[in-house]
C-alpha cells in the first residue's frame, strides 16, 4: 500500500513540476514581449539619444518592475511601473550630471506649465527630449489609469511628478552651492528625491481598482511610502558611498560622520544606517500584515515587494549604476530556458 502511495505521489509531483515549467515559459514569453515594447518606447521618445543617461538602464528598470509585479495579468501595471522607474532614472541623471543650472530650471518651468508648456521655450535639445518624454508618457499612463479607476487621475500624477522633480532640484542646488544639510534636512528631501512617490502611485493605479483619493491622502499611505522610501534611500546611499565620495557628493554616510564632529567612523555610520534599514523593514512588514486598515492589502503588498526588490538591487552594489552586476538575474529571468537539476529516482523497497 505504501509503495502505491509513493508512486502516485511521484506522478503528482511530476505534474506540478511540468505545470511550473510551462508557467515559467509563459511568463518569460510575456516578459520578452513587454521588454520589446519598452525598447520601442525608449526609441520613440529619443531617450537613447541622451548622452548623460547611464547605459543599459532600461532593462534594469524592467527587471525591478517584473520582480515587484510578476503576475501575468498585471502586464499594464508592470509596463507602467517600468516606465515610471525609467523616468526617475532620467531625471536623476539629468539633475545629477547631465544638465546645467539653466537647463534644470527650464525643465521645472515646463513641468509646472504642463499643458501650457508652449508658453516656455526649450533651453536646449536635451531639455526638449526629456520634457517631451515626460509629457507624452505621463499623459498616456494617466489616460490608461483613468480608465482603470473610472475617474481622471492624470492631474494627480502630474502633481506627484512635479513634487518629485522639485525635490531632485533641491539636491542639485545644494551640490552647486556646496551647502551641507543636516541629517534631518537631507532625509526629509531624500525620501521624495528617491522617486517612490510617482513610481508607487503609477503602479497602484493599475493594480488596485477604485484607489480613492482619501486612501492616497491617508496617513497610513504616507507612512508606508516613508518607510519604503527610507529603506531604498539608505540602501542606495550605502552602496553608492564610495562613488559619491570620489565625486565630492554627500549622502547619509558622510553626513552622519560630519554631524558627529569626527566621533563616528565611516564603519560606524554604515552600521547605524544598516540598523535603520532593518528597523524600517520591520515596521513596514508590520503595517503590511495589519488588517482592517485604510490602504487595501494588495496595495500594501506592492510596497513590501518593492522593499524586497530594493534589497535585490542594493545587496552587493548599486544595481542601477552597475548593469553588469544584475546581468545573471536578467538572463535567467528573461532569456535563458529553465534548467532543472535531475537526479536518479530513489529506490523504493516494497513491503514484505
Automatic annotation (TrEMBL):
Metal-binding in keyword set: yes
GO biological process, one term: diterpenoid biosynthetic process
Domain of life assignment: Eukaryota
MF (Gene Ontology): magnesium ion binding; terpene synthase activity
Segments forming domain Terpene synthase metal-binding: 44-282
Cofactor section: Mg(2+)
UniProt-listed InterPro entries: Isoprenoid_synthase_dom_sf, Terpene_synthase-like, Terpene_synthase_metal-bd
UniProt keyword annotations, A-Z: Lyase, Magnesium, Metal-binding
Protein's name in the database: Terpene synthase metal-binding domain-containing protein
Species of origin: Aegilops tauschii subsp. strangulata
Lineage: Eukaryota, Viridiplantae, Streptophyta, Embryophyta, Tracheophyta
Amino acid at each position: 500500500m505504501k509503495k502505491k502511495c509513493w508512486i502516485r505521489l511521484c506522478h503528482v509531483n511530476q505534474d506540478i513540476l511540468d505545470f511550473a515549467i510551462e508557467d515559467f515559459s509563459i511568463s518569460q514569453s510575456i516578459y520578452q514581449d513587454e521588454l520589446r515594447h519598452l525598447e520601442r518606447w525608449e526609441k520613440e521618445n529619443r531617450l537613447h539619444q541622451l548622452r548623460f543617461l547611464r547605459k543599459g538602464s532600461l532593462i534594469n528598470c524592467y527587471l525591478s518592475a517584473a520582480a515587484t509585479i510578476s503576475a501575468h495579468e498585471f502586464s499594464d501595471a508592470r509596463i507602467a511601473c517600468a516606465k515610471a522607474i525609467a523616468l526617475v532614472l532620467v531625471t536623476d541623471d539629468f539633475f545629477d550630471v547631465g544638465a546645467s543650472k539653466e537647463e534644470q530650471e527650464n525643465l521645472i518651468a515646463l513641468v509646472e506649465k504642463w499643458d501650457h508648456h508652449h508658453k516656455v521655450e526649450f533651453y536646449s535639445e536635451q531639455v526638449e527630449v526629456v520634457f517631451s518624454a515626460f509629457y507624452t508618457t505621463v499623459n498616456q499612463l494617466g489616460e490608461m489609469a483613468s480608465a482603470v479607476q473610472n475617474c481622471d487621475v492624470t492631474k494627480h500624477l502630474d502633481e506627484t511628478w512635479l513634487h518629485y522633480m522639485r525635490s531632485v532640484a533641491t539636491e542639485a542646488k545644494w551640490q552647486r552651492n556646496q551647502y551641507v544639510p543636516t541629517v534631518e534636512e537631507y532625509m526629509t528631501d531624500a525620501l521624495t528625491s528617491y522617486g517612490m512617490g510617482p513610481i508607487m502611485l503609477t503602479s497602484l493605479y493599475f493594480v488596485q481598482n477604485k484607489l480613492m483619493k482619501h486612501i492616497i491622502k491617508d496617513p497610513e499611505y504616507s507612512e508606508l511610502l516613508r518607510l519604503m522610501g527610507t529603506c531604498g534611500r539608505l540602501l542606495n546611499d550605502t552602496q553608492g558611498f564610495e562613488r559619491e565620495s570620489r565625486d565630492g557628493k554627500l549622502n547619509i554616510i558622510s553626513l552622519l560622520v560630519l554631524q558627529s564632529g569626527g566621533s563616528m567612523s565611516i564603519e560606524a555610520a554604515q552600521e547605524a544606517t544598516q540598523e535603520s534599514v532593518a528597523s524600517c523593514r520591520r515596521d513596514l512588514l508590520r503595517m503590511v500584515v495589519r488588517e482592517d486598515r485604510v490602504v487595501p492589502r494588495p496595495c500594501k503588498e506592492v510596497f513590501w515587494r518593492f522593499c524586497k526588490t530594493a534589497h535585490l538591487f542594493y545587496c552587493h552594489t548599486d544595481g542601477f549604476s552597475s548593469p553588469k552586476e544584475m546581468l545573471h538575474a536578467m538572463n535567467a529571468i528573461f532569456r535563458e530556458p529553465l534548467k532543472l537539476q535531475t537526479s536518479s529516482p530513489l529506490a523504493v523497497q516494497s513491503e514484505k
